[in-house]
């Protein structure tokens, strides 16, 4: 069965604590590639905030809208990144699609919030101070988003 092409619209969610410690997760398909939660829309009409909620839950088990992490803690930073899709991942998109538009969100969580990784997607996690987290990211747009954390967090 052929998988449908990915939609070239995605979210990046910087998960952080009040003291600006940032959660990074390591990609299962590319060891050493550390990132924040990311993911594409499931449908063209899916609102980015819905995509963010779904992806955070799928990748970390953190339920946005729960008593521990109220919906108000998910903030749309009103930042949009347009970037070229890495060639290694272009096969997931329709032929000729080379760029993606990413909406950036922040999610403040309590220190010690339980994180359960999707082992299919990620193999490890680490909490780092925001500058160290930015340095650890393989994606320039992810690093830039984290560097904006003091402004938005």
Question: Architecture in CATH?
Answer: Alpha-Beta Complex
β-strand percent reads 25-35%
What is the first-to-last residue Cα distance? Answer: 43 Å
Q: How many runs of DSSP E, i.e. beta strands? A: 7
Which CATH C-level class is it?
Answer: Alpha Beta
Helices, by number, come to 4
Largest sheet: 4 strands, mixed
Q: Which regions are unreliable across 5 or more consecutive residues at pLDDT < 50?
A: none
Approximate helicity band: 10-25%
- The CATH topology annotation reads as Nucleoside Triphosphate Pyrophosphohydrolase
Query: How many structural units, i.e. domains?
Result: 1
What value does the average pLDDT take?
A: 95
Structural class: alpha+beta
Please give a handful of descriptors for the protein shown.
single chain; alpha+beta; 3-stranded antiparallel β-sheet; 4 helices; 4-stranded mixed β-sheet; 21% helix; 7 strands; Nucleoside Triphosphate Pyrophosphohydrolase
Write the layout of secondary structure elements.
Blueprint: E1 9-16, E2 21-27, E3 34-35, E4 37-40, H1 48-60, E5 74-84, E6 99-108, E7 122-129, H2 130-136, H3 140-147, H4 149-152
Parallel strand pairs: 1-6
Antiparallel strand pairs: 1-4, 2-3, 2-7, 5-6
Helix pairs in contact: 2-3
């Amino acid at each position: 069965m052929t998988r449908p092409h990915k939609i070239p619209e995605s979210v990046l969610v910087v998960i952080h604590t009040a003291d600006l410690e940032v959660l990074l997760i390591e990609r299962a398909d590319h060891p050493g590639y550390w990132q924040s939660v990311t993911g594409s829309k499931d449908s063209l009409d899916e609102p980015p905030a819905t995509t963010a909620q779904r992806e955070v839950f799928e990748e970390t088990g953190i339920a946005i809208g729960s008593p521990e992490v109220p919906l108000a803690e998910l903030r749309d930073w009103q930042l949009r990144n347009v970037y070229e899709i890495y060639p290694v991942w272009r096969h997931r998109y329709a032929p000729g699609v080379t760029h993606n538009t990413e909406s950036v969100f922040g999610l403040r969580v309590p220190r010690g919030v339980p994180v359960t990784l999707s082992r299919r997607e990620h193999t490890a996690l680490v909490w780092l101070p925001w500058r160290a987290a930015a340095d650890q990211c393989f994606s320039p747009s992810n690093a830039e988003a984290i560097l904006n954390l003091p402004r938005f967090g």
